[in-house]
Design a protein that fits this description.
12 helices; Helix Hairpins
Length: 409
């Protein structure tokens, strides 16, 4: 520092001496002013250099203190904010103690888990064993928590192990995925069984006819061929229904945009059934007028929905009893109702009627030609059209199936 101040004094002295000699030598005023300005500029530059922290000397005793150690990730406010925004349960643990739980984790496990041992917060044998063996940082493979937190449910747990014994636990509910997988497996198994039964009958009677080598009389041959035709038509109906439910499921996320008249669709379906050879077709009683009920819908699918509901009532209603079809307007919705006077259905069966291949009376359903898919198709079509399906039944008196749709416009 002393050397720099000395240099500043010397520079100013030399400039002053130069200005004096210029004046004694008869220099003009401009030359003297330039020398003075040059000296002032030099002085300013030197002063700036002395004041600049870039060249200032730093002594060890005045050196700035090092930055403090970084804050723990689990205690950082930004981490807590991010954790609360996660939709699935998340836990932060220091050692085996839960120090952080987001809202989803609190709803699942309870508020008491904060401050508790994570092995008691997640009461599952697989989780307890796994958490006890974690001692190295890194992301670990997820494990399955079967029957957690209640029987029949399945969750997965993933762990990100941090340094210092800290851990982040992620929980994810996989119960719905498992249910969908089971539904697909059951569907394939049921479809295979339903197709295999008539196919076995067809093959058996064909082989019998072949072994007779023409020895069977006409009545026997006619009876066998009638059975073969009946089972083949049963297979045909099953394949048609399988294709129908497949198409409906493929379109379930595409809302219909065309405006159709529900009244016209119901009348056309009733006329088609009355023209059939079914002896119950003449028992259909239409109880509605010609008012137009426009809805946004797929005309072919809505026709299938109406056909399935009426045909079910014809199959399971008692012979020579009316199958009443009603169509009314309720505010901004249209309600289609079909009522039969059959044996009725026990309340225990009602919640499962729309399941694929579910039958209240399996033997009776097959005898009347049911595939077990009719109401499942009705349910999917009504859902695609934002409809509400209701089934009411009383044992010994009959069943009423209703679907309401929002009117267009």
């Amino acid at each position: 520092m002393f050397d720099r101040l000395s240099s500043l004094v010397v520079a100013l002295t030399l400039v002053a001496v130069a200005a004096i000699f210029a004046a004694l030598a008869g220099g003009d005023a401009l030359t003297i002013a330039l020398l003075a300005l040059t000296g002032a500029a030099a002085a300013a530059l030197v002063y700036s250099a002395l004041a600049s922290p870039a060249v200032a000397q730093t002594h060890p005793e005045t050196a700035p203190a090092p930055d403090p150690a970084p804050t723990s990730l689990l205690r950082h406010p930004d981490f807590a904010l991010w954790a609360d925004q996660e939709e699935e349960p998340l836990l932060g643990c220091d050692g085996n103690i839960v120090t952080l739980a987001n809202d989803a984790a609190v709803r699942l496990l309870g508020r008491h888990i904060v401050g508790a041992d994570v092995r008691t917060a997640i009461r599952h044998p697989a989780a307890t064993e796994w958490l006890s063996g974690i001692d190295t940082p890194g992301s670990l493979e997820p494990i399955n928590l079967i029957d957690f937190p209640r029987p029949g449910q399945r969750w997965t747990m993933r762990i990100a192990a941090l340094s210092g014994g800290q851990k982040i636990l992620f929980l994810a509910d996989r119960s719905a995925i498992d249910a969908a997988d089971r539904m697909r497996s059951d569907f394939v198994a049921n479809a295979s069984h339903e197709l295999r039964t008539p196919l076995a009958a067809i093959l058996g009677y064909v082989e019998t006819l072949q072994d007779m080598n023409g020895e069977a009389d006409g009545a026997t041959r006619h009876r066998f061929l009638s059975i073969i035709e009946r089972e083949a038509r049963r297979m045909q109906r099953l394949v048609i229904d399988l294709l129908s439910i497949s198409r409906v499921e493929a379109d379930r996320f595409r809302r219909p945009t065309a405006s159709v008249d529900l009244t016209a669709i119901v009348r056309a379906t009733i006329a088609q059934l009355r023209d059939s050879e079914n002896p119950r077709a003449q028992d259909i009683a239409a109880a509605f007028d010609e008012m137009t009920l426009p809805i946004l819908g797929d005309e072919a699918q809505l026709g299938q929905l109406v056909h399935n509901i009426i045909f079910n009532a014809m199959k399971y209603g008692r012979p020579d009893t009316p199958v009443t079809v009603e169509l009314i307007r309720e505010g901004r919705r249209a309600r289609l109702s079909v009522r039969d006077e059959g044996e009725g259905i026990s309340p225990d069966h009602l919640p499962r009627l729309t399941e694929r291949f579910y039958r209240v009376d399996e033997a009776r359903s097959r005898s009347v030609g049911g595939t077990g898919l009719g109401l499942a198709i009705v349910k999917h079509i009504s859902e695609r059209h934002q409809g509400q399906l209701d089934i009411e039944s009383e044992v010994g008196k009959g069943t009423r199936v209703s679907v309401t749709f929002p009117l267009a416009g």
